[in-house]
Amino acid sequence: MRIAYVSNFMNHHQLPFSMGLLGQDDVEYIFIALEPIPQERLDMGYEDMNYKCKFVLCAYDSADNMRQAEELIDNADVAIYGSCPDTLIKRRADKGKLCFKFSERFFKEGTGLTRVPHNLASAWKHLKPFEKIPLYFCCSSAYTAADLNRYTNFDGRAFKWGYFTEAKEYDTTALMSRKLSVTFGWKHPKVSILWAGRLIGWKHPDVSIELAASLKKKGYSFIMSIIGNGEMEQQLRAMIEEKDVSDCVEMLGAMPPEKVREHMEQADIFLFTSDFNEGWGAVLNESMNSGCAVVASHAIGSVPFLIRDGENGLIYENGNQKEFEERVEYLIENEENRRKIGLNAYTTIFEHWSPTIAAQRFVRLAMTIMKGEDGAALYSDGPCSVAPILRNDWYGQKKD
Fold first, then answer.
1. Helical (H) or strand (E) element with 69
2. 155 and 10 inside one domain
3. Of 32, 131, 220, 257, which has fewest CB within 10 angstroms of its CB?
4. Cβ(16)–Cβ(166) below 8 Å
5. Which among 312, 40, 288, 342 is positioned nearest to 164, based on CA atoms?
6. Looking at the domain assignment, is residue 400 inside a domain?
7. pLDDT, tens digit, for every residue of 231-283?
């Protein structure tokens, strides 16, 4: 099977899945990069993988490379599309050739009445042309299927997907013993809490500092580390001083992904506080794989797919600071359950949501569809199972 993956640029989130495809017999694989990696990403610690990986064709380098890329796309058995112009999808799909679109949600900014004209126009432009041709969606958000079927009909052609970071295999006893390692200078009974990401508004790093102030006031013993940089950095530093939590909150700045993982491996609790603008959120894969007990907003695209509330992580209603703090307090007070949740989180990623499993399932799904059979019947859960239509307010309804 010849597979061509077309997207903006290769990065460490796409690499593990790509390696999973390359590791399979009878699969020929090429990744077509349409643009250089942005400087902003390099400043965040990303590595330029467009030229490092031999299976990447940099179509933007020359007109000859672009022509070669178009030929590879046209002649592949399966084409995967990430961030790319619709024209590259349509030229193939119009010929009846199998295509998959890897996509986060389409309507991150909301689906209320005021958004209807904009959303309807967007759906008509980017979705309607593909409604009757063989384009299938791998949903890198639990909310993508709902967006797809709000103004168009892709029922039965939307599958659970995500970002597939490296799924490390650990000696779980050794991994859990690393939590609160003296590497960070603290010992029990302090609990190590970690937040990591860009310091921007819709990721809400400020609610973690509010949490720290509340925990300190209530007498909890903890240390909170914040990794990342961004437009809110000075605001957060001022907030730490204002809330008088500089003795228990540290800001570590940006660092390469492998260093972030080292901090995850030594953290007890990971905070994931983004709102609906977080299409997927690969830090959830990474922190769960690192054995963290995660407390996450229900609005994040990866959360409904990966977290089973109370079993392998804890969910709180987006924007509900009180519930957020209660969830963290529960984990601090219940060490045994905290460690059990962390171990279950590791198992979820390593045994069910790893890039190797995703690649194997994807190839099987593509082959099934190519044979004219029902791909929706292959898997009941996990990657390549049918993505349900999930409303934004599902978590509030669940609590009711």
1. helix 63-75
2. yes
3. 131
4. yes
5. 288
6. no
7. 999 999 999 999 999 999 999 999 988 999 999 999 999 999 999 999 999 99
